[in-house]
Automatic annotation (TrEMBL), chain A:
Protein name: ABC transporter substrate-binding protein
Transmembrane segments: none
A biological process from GO: peptide transport
Family to which this protein belongs: Belongs to the bacterial solute-binding protein 5 family.
PROSITE patterns listed in its UniProt record: SBP_BACTERIAL_5
InterPro entries assigned: Peptide/Ni-bd (IPR030678), SBP_5 (IPR039424), SBP_5_CS (IPR023765), SBP_5_dom (IPR000914)
Organism: Oceanidesulfovibrio indonesiensis
GO MF annotation terms: peptide transmembrane transporter activity
Top-level taxon: Bacteria
UniProtKB/TrEMBL annotation, chain B:
Name the UniProt record assigns to this protein: ABC transporter permease
Matching PROSITE patterns: ABC_TM1
InterPro entries: BPD_transp_1_N (IPR045621), MetI-like (IPR000515), MetI-like_sf (IPR035906)
Transmembrane segments: 12-30, 100-121, 133-155, 185-205, 243-269, 289-315
SUPFAM superfamilies: MetI-like (SSF161098)
Length: 516, 325
């Protein structure tokens, strides 16, 4: 029996060696793109997919600058308009030529997508100047126009026009049912979806007419397998069944770092993890001294070191370094003596009891972090009743504000500081939608004013100053409890040049991946 | 037999109704599927509109009656995540699970029968003692731990076997996606099936041993021996046949437990079967798929129990008439 197994295995190995030089990348991620329609959902998985199969007008570099893709260059004409000069000779997978018409069509579709329409709300009708020039116009002066252009992945307007076999329009954006765009694609990207079995595997083949011939990338096929279980994903890499995994679970970092069979790459991320202190539910949290005491009592360097195993960056504010609003002066504030002193000076020197909820499968080590926080609060006399639950149940509870302290992590879709404020800290307002996730009910008109003004400030230097000021105000107010930014991680076989293609948004540019 | 069949069908329908009710109560508790369908920054109104569109805002009874009405016409709903009819999704995942269960069952039968008999006949043999000790260890290690250990030893360290997935599959008869007909597929099924059988095998060894020992003490075995029948004939024909009855009963019950263990095994091995699908559906709050799956499993259980009852009758005609619950 043993001999048989060995023989069978040897045969398999020989076969595997035979196809190794075809530069196939076997990729394992924790999630699968939910659809082949890039507009059906705004999520990390879908954007990673879009960067493979489609191509944006411009994209972020590692240094958080913009680099040309389908737009060769761009210029600001006035407060409302940016003119994009498009690349000539670009072909869609269907063979159709890419022109300005496709950009206008895509922009129009983005405004119909449930997930993207909010982000593209500031945009007015674009003006097609000629086949390869388009003016993208906003209703008001809008500083984030270029940030948003990284989300414009032009789709093949001709391919997606008309009706499919069932009589449904081909451009329909359907979230829960079948649609043409959910199972067919025609983008300008380096890879074509060759076959796809949702949740099982997707095979991407290189597009022969791809425009970017200067890219050093040499992968001709990508086999994407979603592997949700952390241990299995790591085992698949270590056993050589896959070439590249993302993300790497923190508990396996040391193991991978020490292995010579794989290369590990990590980077500071931009998702902030915080606790919100509900001032509507608790009179105590209206006392700034109490809030400050809580922030001072929170040992976030300890959490990063012990619970996150160093795999996170301690935060004193929301904006990570590199964002406009990042304010160097705002450092983490752990100081237990100061916390005790503040607590004694507050109106509640004897402490009090509060309730708290946190998810247990949403953020890295979320449950452990929340438990650590409970014991930290005990040291300043605040007793916390913690309840944790899976994310499927968590968000409804979060929205209903069932507890006094609630955990939330946030990544800015716009890669911009103002986004943190708009969702997490502006005065909650049902009509405008601001403060949608502000379960702390922190409300400061001055902050609201600055953020609203920043939305139409196109002078970058002035805008940075405004956003940094806003960060300072909420820091001084101890409006919430900042913990850390989660780090990002990727690992692959040593012959993959991972470093040049990864970035803080976590969309690896697989088209540029070099396999030695 | 006819009356029995009719009673069974009625019983099955009742079970289905109850299961669908339970499924619906779980559905309401498990979370909001819309959360998983949209990005976080989507506004409350947009989410509400989508919920209306999916009929999730209707009261419990309205949703349930609608479900039963559609189910009566063979439509158990649409999976939110897969964007396809839920039944199609379940059926497309079934071959993976059934093949895994089949191979594990073969492993269990092939090993448990001879080992069990051996341990009963020669309880003091050193090999029997080793088997018994190992079986205690086997029963007490959770399946996912066994699975992870197997992966680390045979996939990561020795690199003999693949660590995840089903490998290459081929379409049989136009609907059965099989991994048992390709070499790659067979290599992929080795570790998961061992992991899955790791709980059942020791259990069956102990069960067969215990039953066999008991049977060997009975008068008719002594009588058969006294009559001078060959020991082999006594052992396999007379004794083992009577051992089988309780083993089959337990086997039928264990099949349900097997499904539970398949969920764990499939998750660890990224085995694309129904168990894995179920767990992911829970995580994504794909509630329509969940309810469809619960009803589907209910049907399977009813069928299995019926078949077990029938086999029972075949093995020992005495129980066919009476003693059925």
């Amino acid at each position: 029996m043993k001999r048989l197994i060995v023989a069978v295995l040897a045969a398999a190995l020989v076969m595997a060696a035979g196809i190794a030089h075809a530069k196939t990348l076997k990729l394992a991620m924790d999630a699968d793109p939910v659809s082949m329609d890039p507009h059906v959902q705004l999520s990390g998985g879908m954007l990673q997919y879009s960067h493979m199969v489609f191509d944006p007008l411009i994209r972020w570099t590692k240094e958080m600058d913009f680099e040309p893709r389908l737009a060769e260059k761009w210029e600001r004409l006035d407060d409302l308009t940016v003119r994009f000069h498009l690349r000539k000779g670009v072909k869609f997978h269907s063979g159709n030529e890419f022109t300005a018409k496709d950009v206008a069509w895509t922009l129009d579709r983005l405004k119909k997508s449930q997930d993207f329409k909010g982000l593209f709300e500031p945009f007015a009708e674009p003006k097609i100047v000629d086949e390869y020039t388009i003016d993208i116009v906003t209703k008001e002066p809008y500083p984030l126009l270029l940030n948003m252009a990284t989300y414009i992945f032009p789709m093949d307007s001709e391919f997606y026009t008309g009706t499919d076999d069932s009589g449904q329009p081909k451009d329909a954006i359907v979230k829960t049912g079948p649609s043409f765009a959910n199972v067919n694609e025609s983008g300008t990207g380096k890879f074509i979806v060759a076959s796809r079995e949702q949740g099982v595997r997707t095979v991407f083949k290189v597009f022969a007419d791809y425009w970017d011939t200067e890219s050093p990338g040499n992968v001709s096929e990508i086999v994407l397998t979603p592997i949700k279980e952390n241990a299995t994903r790591v085992a698949a890499l270590l056993s050589g069944d896959v070439d590249f995994i993302m993300p790497v679970p923190p508990q396996d970092l040391d193991r991978l770092r020490g292995s010579d069979k794989v290369k590990l790459v990590t980077m500071t991320g931009s998702r902030i993890i915080t606790f919100q202190l509900n001032q509507n539910r608790r009179e105590e949290f209206k006392d700034p001294k109490v809030r400050e005491a809580i922030v001072y009592a929170t040992n976030n360097p300890g959490i990063v070191e012990k619970i996150m195993k160093g795999f996170a960056t301690v935060a004193g504010q929301q904006s990570p370094e590199g964002y406009l609003g990042y304010n160097e002066a705002l450092t983490p504030r752990f100081d237990l003596d100061k916390a005790k002193q503040l607590m004694a000076e507050s109106n509640y020197p004897d402490g009090f009891t509060v309730s708290m909820i946190a998810p247990n499968n949403r953020y890295v080590n979320d449950e452990k972090i929340a438990e650590a926080f409970v014991s930290m609060m005990a040291k300043i006399g605040i007793k916390v009743d913690l309840k944790t639950m899976p994310k499927a149940q968590y968000w409804d509870q979060f929205d209903d504000q069932v507890a006094d302290i609630q955990m939330i992590g946030w990544h800015a879709d716009t890669e911009d500081t103002a986004n943190f404020f708009e969702f997490l800290l502006m005065c909650p307002n049902k009509e405008t939608g601001y403060g949608q996730y502000n379960s702390g009910n922190y409300c400061n008109p001055e902050v609201d004013e600055i953020i609203l003004a920043s939305q139409s400030e196109t002078d970058t230097a002035k805008r940075a100053e405004m956003l940094q000021k806003a960060e300072k105000i909420v820091y001084d107010d101890a409006a919430y409890v900042p913990l850390h930014w989660q780090d990002l991680s990727w690992a692959g076989k040593p012959n993959l040049q991972i470093e040049p293609i990864v970035n803080v948004m976590d969309f690896p540019y697989f088209g540029d991946l070099v396999v030695e | 037999m006819f009356a029995f069949a009719v009673r069974r069908i009625l019983q099955a329908l009742m079970v289905m109704v109850v299961i669908s009710l339970i499924g619906f109560s779980i559905k309401f508790a498990i979370g909001d599927p819309v959360r998983d369908l949209v990005g976080v920054s989507v506004s409350v109104e947009e989410r509400e509109a989508l919920r209306d569109e999916l009929g999730l805002n209707d009261p419990f009874l309205v949703q349930w009656v609608r479900f039963i009405g559609n189910a009566a016409q063979g439509d158990v709903g649409q999976s939110f995540f897969f964007k396809r009819p839920a039944m199609d999704v379940i059926i497309s995942k079934a071959p993976a699970t059934l093949e895994l269960v089949l191979v594990s069952s073969i492993i269990v039968v092939v090993f448990s029968v001879p080992i069990g008999i051996f341990c009963a006949v020669r309880p003091n043999h050193w090999l029997a003692r080793i088997f018994m000790t190992l079986s205690i260890v086997g029963v007490s290690i959770p399946v996912f731990l066994t699975a992870i250990l197997l992966i680390y030893v045979f996939a990561v360290e020795l690199q003999w076997l693949p660590s995840y997935g089903r490998g290459e599959t081929r379409l049989l008869f136009g609907f059965w996606e099989s991994g048992l007909v390709t070499k790659d597929g067979l290599l992929h099924i080795i570790l998961p099936s061992i992991a899955l059988s790791s709980i059942m095998l020791p259990l069956f060894i102990r069960l067969i041993r215990a039953e066999m020992k008991e049977v060997l003490e009975t008068e008719y075995i002594k009588f058969a021996r006294a009559k001078g029948l060959s020991p082999r004939r006594v052992l396999y024909l007379h004794a083992f046949k009577n051992t089988l009855l309780p083993v089959i009963t337990v086997g039928g019950v264990q099949l349900g437990i097997m499904i539970a263990f398949t969920i764990l095994t499939e998750t660890v091995f990224q085995w694309q079967g129904m168990g894995f699908m179920f767990l992911e559906a829970v995580e994504r709050s794909d509630t329509s798929l969940l309810v469809a799956y619960l009803v589907f499993v209910g049907v399977i259980f009813v069928i299995v129990n019926t078949v077990v009852d029938l086999i029972y009758g075949l093995v020992n005609p005495m129980v066919r008439i009476s003693g059925r619950k």
